[in-house]
Specification:
With about 325 residues, the protein is α/β, with parallel strands linked by helices. The chain has a single domain (about 5-320), classed as Glycoside hydrolase/deacetylase (TIM Barrel, Alpha-Beta Barrel), CATH 3.20.20. The chain has helices at about 25-30, 35-50, 60-65, 70-75, 110-125, 145-155, 205-210, 215-225, 250-260, 265-275, 280-285, 310-320; strands at about 5-10, 55-60, 80-85, 130-135, 160, 180, 185-190, 195, 200, 235, 275-280. Bound molecules: zinc ion.
Length: about 325
């Protein structure tokens, strides 16, 4: 049996960007703190180069603006560069407004401005369209599904923001677990989960990878790859391989979630890359037959529709996601 290519994704942001620190370290203070993401990300680039693995990097616009050389280095090493928004603000509101006037209440204007700013910044640096998006703290939840249509209108090809789990801050527990298509054409690429006793359990990386024993993640990925014959989307942050980062004031739960096992993560990641096959999100999608993308019947239209059956359209769509062989996705004009 051919090995399944899982997606390795890296959310390039600083240690002080985590939403859990947003009251301790508000955005006005970010510029006063030492930046460390560049160094940690370059170490991850070295690790990937030594393994011959390409990954998808969801870069925060705030970081791209201050370290443009890092974004170029990621692309020049052959990786896929995607957007993690600009200012690390979770999406919020019902999105009902027309995007004019005071958009604070409905969240739409704020979301469009933040996303457009980051997309343009990164596209200027890499000289090609940005096709992928991941929201701050997986903040596309039931109330913010409207953001998916905005992403499609902005020319994104895929989103990786809907975590199909139960969590205190995010998640749509009954959302599909594997790549699927929204009615707009946008492909959804959910972070990895395994089914345990009728529940979706996260095996996707991040805190789950640091807090649980590594054997749990290995068990989960093996189970999904071998039993379900599907890929897993895995994520890691540069600050998770930076044990020397300055400690920020936070409550006990946040300290555990954010700081535990930072000194072990790089080695654990290296072991994981030896054990399973990983690639970019584009490479992961390329191997999936169009009909294998589970229709999203659990999320009702108008936001989400079952997959269209036209294989031809599907095939060309997926090939457009490939960073190297595929044609480039068309960049639409700004809708901000
Ligand atoms: Zn983030």
């Amino acid at each position: 049996m051919a090995l399944i290519t899982n997606a390795l994704t890296i959310d390039v942001e600083e240690y002080f960007h985590a939403t859990a620190f947003s009251s301790a370290v508000p955005p006005e203070r970010w510029a006063d703190l030492p930046m460390r993401a560049g160094e940690a990300t370059r170490r991850l680039l070295d690790l990937l180069a030594s393994r011959g693995i390409r990954a998808t990097f969801f870069v925060l616009g705030w970081v791209a603006e201050r370290d443009p050389g890092l974004v170029r280095a990621i692309r020049e090493a052959g990786h896929e560069v995607a957007s993690h928004g600009y200012g690390h603000r979770p999406i919020r509101g019902d999105g009902r407004g027309d995007g004019r006037g005071d958009g604070r209440k409905d969240g739409r204007k704020e979301f469009i401005e933040d996303t457009d700013r980051s997309k343009k910044l990164i596209e200027d640096l890499i000289g090609e369209p940005v096709k992928g998006y991941r929201a701050t703290t997986f903040s596309i939840v039931r109330e913010t599904l409207w953001a998916l249509d905005v992403l499609a209108e902005m020319g994104f090809a895929y989103d990786s923001s809907i975590f199909p789990i139960r969590h205190d801050r995010y998640g749509i527990p009954d959302a599909p677990r594997f790549p699927h298509r929204h009615s707009s054409g946008l492909i959804e690429v959910p972070p990895g989960t395994a089914r345990v006793l009728g529940q979706n359990v996260p095996i996707a990386g991040g805190g789950y990878f640091r807090l649980f024993p590594p054997s749990f993640t290995r068990w989960g990925i093996r189970r999904v790859n071998e039993k379900e014959k599907m890929p897993v989307v895995f994520y890691v942050h540069p600050w998770e391989v930076d044990p020397d980062q300055p400690r920020l004031p936070a409550g006990r739960l946040t300290r555990i979630r954010h700081y535990r096992n930072l000194d072990r993560t790089e080695e654990r990641l290296s072991d994981l890359l030896e054990t399973f096959r990983f690639g970019t999100i584009g490479e992961m999608l390329e191997q999936l037959a169009p009909q294998s993308m589970e229709p999203c019947s659990s999320l009702r239209p108008p936001h989400l529709d079952p997959l269209p059956q036209e294989r031809k359209r599907e095939a060309s769509y997926i090939s457009s996601l490939s960073p190297v062989t595929g044609e480039r996705a068309r960049v639409r004009g700004s809708i901000a």
